Amino acid sequence: MQKVKHLILYVILALSAVSCVNTDSKVKYEPQPGDTLYTENAAMVVFDRNPERALLILDSAVVVGNLDEDRAKMLRARVLSRSTADLHFEEALQICEALMQSDFVDNPVNRENVLDLLITITRRRGDNEQWVRWSTEKVDLCRQQGDETEALRTEAEIGFILAQLGEEERGLAKLSGVIGALDEQRHFNEMDACIIAIKRKINILDILDRTENIIPLAQRIIDKIDDYRQHSDDYADGSFRLPQTDEQFNGYCNFYTAQAYCFLAKAYAEIGEYDTARHYMSLFEESDYGKTFSGRMMASRTWCILGDYDKMLAIYDVAAARLGNDTMNLDFSSMLYNRAFAAEAAGDYQASTSYWRRYTEIKNVLDRKQHEGQAFHYAARYKLQEERMNTEREQAKAKQNKSLALAGFILVILSVGFIIRLLIQRHAIDRKNRVLTEQMIEAVKYKKEISQKLQTSHFKLQTRAVEELNDEQLFDYLSNVIRREELFLNHSFGRQVLMDRFHINERRIGAAFSCCEGLPDFIRDLRLEYACQLITDNPEMTISEVATASGFSNLTVFGRDFKRKYEVTPTYFRSQMTAKK
After folding, report:
1. Domain that holds residue 462
2. Taking CA atoms, which of 44, 47, 411, 461 is between 20 and 30 Å from 529?
3. Which CATH number goes with the domain that contains 463?
4. pTM of the predicted model, to two decimals?
5. Collapsing DSSP states into helix, strand and coil, what is residue 259?
6. How far is CA 508 from CA 95, 481, 496, 523, in A?
């Protein structure tokens, strides 16, 4: 009977439970705009430890109207960028590139946030070319907004990337420029950016095995942190990076000081100063950062150089336990590399060989994956870009051909117009020259007749003394003598000949010929008239013969003077005379 009662009680309880479950399932919760769960802050609180939950919250926040769709896309890309999956990286990259083409980035703050995501994604993917591209765009944006410090901070990253791309010296030069621009400034933001740049330079120098250059840089970090500790009020610049509490302040100082100790320990170990290296390693181990797993991993290589393989292996054991089955990565391959050294030093050559073999296998796989990943990424990305470039190239070519055709047509029109204008001008000039030639011929005939009359007429003044003549009479007398005796044909004829022959002074000759702008011009005109006469009477004479016969000692001077007086050349005048005959 007791068993029957217990059985009935169990049935009632089971039915009650089922009823409760069915009742709950009928209640469907509808998200409300006021729900605090579906907000940006709620998503960002959990996205590090539970990215799937964060993505769900973001989608719900858009549905209930708590979040703008474009901002939700950016936050979704931020969550996806923290993943290690290639597909998540690709999705995040596509979201950010789409946002860069939208109105969302018209706001400089949004643009900088999207650029930061693109930089993070391309850096984690190892896509150095795109890393440089987006970093350079961020530098330009920061400078446009007047944020020189953030521009320099990003330039430090570009310097590091350039070194990764094989341009070590260029990368080091850029980092040195950034450090020089920030080093002496007492502001927290500038100091922090300077320390980051120094660390990047140390990383490059370590890869290049320039150990001796690392020591002063690491010491510079310690000096800057010490100065910040002593004069923290001077560094308070109000930047968002500035530590707000004593705990944050001490944590910041201890972190970078510890890292500098580790840089110094490794550098001194590599140059063989082991005591100094161990001194800095002891300082590092005493620091808070040195006790963390990340800090111990940072120091592991130094313990290997110092020969303290037990410490190194203890760190690697912890790291291997954390990695579990995830051994296909650079961290694990690096540990295998150093384990091989440790085993060889201990005389366990079989284990050393095994580590080397596993290291080589993983390294080859990683290199192939990286190559295949880049090949897939670039094939997908640049196929479309290549097609777009080909289309643009064809359009540009067609536009260029159209422009060239239009330019050719315009050039032909201009050429035809120019030729027509030239022919019209040439025709006008020829007509004008013919008129001038006819006038010159008439003038030559007229002057020839006047000259004959003067030669046959009795000159009334010849019986009178020259000194009795006034200036006008003296001009008539002298000009008649010069014409009649053709004194002007002598190329050496001049004022002195008249002075010697007629016993008159230079002043009187100048006064007599003042009516015709002077004796030289008078002589030149007579010679040119005579040249016209020669050409008219003897068109077979060469221009050189005409010039000489006319009293000109220089053919160039003759041609210049003839053209200036008659507006045609002697050659043209002769051609007209030949044509008339």
Report:
1. 433-580
2. 461
3. 1.10.10.60
4. 0.53
5. helix
6. 104, 16, 12, 17
